[in-house]
Write a structure and sequence with these properties.
heterodimer; A: 6 helices; 7 strands; about 40% helix; B: alpha+beta; six-stranded antiparallel sheet; about 25% strand; disordered C terminus
């Protein structure tokens, strides 16, 4: 949803820094190197990487290219194993009671409780099916801008880091002030730096 | 200044723009003349969020309503609040966009693009058709950004010039005018 279909929510980023001359080869290498790796058959808790905008199971871009005209279109996929606190609490209480009875103790010691909690958490985590979330982006190579299809600030921090890791480029969100810097001349910029809020009543 | 500081210190810039745009759109009955692009229809509707103060003293009001004369929102303006979010319809040439602009961070939310023949081809299978459809959607997103940036540029041109004093007086009159409407209603 968003880039390809339906209603969309997005913010804009500037892409800072230079790409190498063989831009498309460089991007091709990096996209594959940082593509998504499935964790369904592992015990990993977290995985992040690039997939096709058309199919989140296509991390090798076999069925569709990520290049469209002058744009690079990618989906950032994040899979995460999570255990709800209520489930953890429930299973933990049961397990503590089982161990206490088994060892015939009046009360469990603190180190024992810590050990049981970690064991239960790891066990539940391994059973949990990774929850996928996907976020589309559209990178204009000629404008050095990026449309990122989420307004979630936590995800903005994630895309900033992962984009830098993947392509060695910094991205900076275009808020009104930084957008203005691209729209006005130097004289206006000097005024912009000084202005303070005005009262409209 | 780094981005985090700019977000806090210059928060007002986007809000002043959106508030100005509301006035500007009403000044000529829902139409704004964008230099180089001609007339653009700009209609504020349904949903508004106004904000005043900062940090712990921040106050917000949300106003919704289909028939929105948006009296509550206008009252908010009179209390010194500024527009932080608004649902806007922008029309230009044959295209009509509907979206919510969150002003402080310039977020585009729930953007509905105009329907075109290419974007409506839902069952396209060939890579060329899919690429064509993707490019058309990207083009429409960029057109919307261009229009909003054009309007923002218009605001900046006046906000950063000596003409701002006059403009501000007109906005203040417009804000005050809604007081009269409220007063009349109160006497009825």
């Amino acid at each position: 949803m968003g880039l390809l279909k339906g209603s969309a929510s997005f913010v804009r980023f500037s892409v800072l820094g230079e790409l190498p001359e063989n831009t498309l080869d460089f991007i091709a290498d990096r996209v594959i190197a940082f593509s998504f790796k499935d964790i369904d058959d592992t015990y990993d808790e977290y995985s992040i990487g690039w997939v096709s905008i058309l199919n989140m199971f296509d991390s090798q871009f076999q069925y569709a290219s990520y290049a469209a005209g002058d744009y690079i279109t990618l989906t950032l996929r994040i899979d995460e194993r999570k255990v709800s606190p209520a489930i953890l609490k429930k299973v933990l209480q049961k397990e503590e009671e089982r161990v206490r009875l088994e060892r015939q103790l009046p009360k469990l010691s603190r180190p024992m409780k810590v050990e049981i909690k970690e064991r239960v958490r790891v066990d539940l985590m391994r059973k949990a099916i990774p929850i996928p979330s996907i976020f589309e982006l559209c990178w204009s190579l000629s404008d050095a801008t990026l449309l990122f299809f989420s307004t979630n600030k936590k995800i903005h921090a994630v895309i900033e880091d992962y984009f830098k890791e993947s392509f060695g480029l910094l991205i900076r969100q275009q808020i009104p002030y930084t957008t203005a810097e691209h729209l006005i001349d130097e004289e206006q910029l000097a005024v912009l730096e000084r202005i303070s809020p005005d009262i409209f009543v | 200044m780094d981005l985090v500081d700019l977000i806090v210190e210059k928060r007002f810039l986007g809000q002043e723009f959106l508030t100005w745009l509301w006035w500007k759109s009403e000044e000529r009955g829902g139409s704004v003349e964008l230099p180089g692009e001609g007339d653009v229809t700009v209609v504020f509707e349904k949903h508004m969020l106004l904000e005043s103060g900062e940090g712990e003293s921040m106050e917000k009001i949300v106003c919704t309503g289909l028939q929105a004369e948006l009296q509550e929102a206008r009252t908010g303006l009179r209390m010194g609040k500024k527009l932080e979010q608004a649902r806007i319809i922008i029309g230009h040439r044959d295209y009509e966009y509907s979206f919510t602009l969150a002003a402080a961070l310039m977020e585009f939310r729930n953007v509905r693009l105009p329907k075109t023949e290419t974007t409506e081809q839902d069952k396209s299978e060939s890579p060329e058709e899919i690429e064509g459809m993707t490019l058309e959607r990207i083009y429409l997103f960029e057109e919307l950004i261009k229009l909003v940036n054009g309007l923002f540029r218009m605001f900046l041109d006046v906000r950063l010039s000596a003409a701002w004093g006059d403009e501000l007086q007109k906005i203040r009159k417009w804000v005050a005018k809604s007081t009269v409407i409220d007063h009349d209603q109160g006497e009825m």
